[in-house]
Amino acid sequence: MAIDANRLKELDNMVRRMGALASIFGVRSDSIGNSHFGAFRDLMDLYTDMCGRQLKEGNDFLDDGVKPTEDDVARVNLVFERIFGFTPENFKAK
């Protein structure tokens, strides 16, 4: 189903606000000195990119969720490793 103009505007504004918040997080987290924590910014950017792409394709990312590409999955795995220090496959309870 096509997104109506009001919903499109609402979602577009949301994507912009998420990008702004991620930017602020990046600035604030840089001063902490923990690159693992700062990598959450990359995850936020990835999610925002995915939402924006869904919107450009005419999909409501809130109602329908995001649909990752192979590249998105690879990026998530890289960021995961930057945050936790190991790959998602090795994320297990000790």
Q: Could you give a short description of this structure?
A:
By secondary structure, the protein is mostly helical.
How does this structure look, described?
The structure is a single chain. The model has no long low-confidence stretch (mean pLDDT 94). This protein has one domain. The chain has 94 residues and is mainly alpha-helical. It is built from 5 helices and no strands.
The percentage of residues in β strands lies in: under 5%
Order of helical and strand elements: HHHHH
Helical content class: over 70%
Point out poorly predicted stretches: none
Average pLDDT level: 94
Distance between the termini: 46 Å
Counted by DSSP, the helix tally is 5
What is the gyration radius calculated from CA atoms?
15 Å
How would you sum up the major sheet? Answer: none
The beta-strand count equals 0
Which of globular, elongated, flat, extended, rod-shaped describes the shape?
Answer: flat
Number of domains: 1
Fold blueprint:
Blueprint: H1 5-30, H2 35-38, H3 40-56, H4 61-64, H5 70-84
Helix pairs in contact: 1-3, 3-5
Summary tags:
single chain; 94 residues; 5 helices; mainly alpha
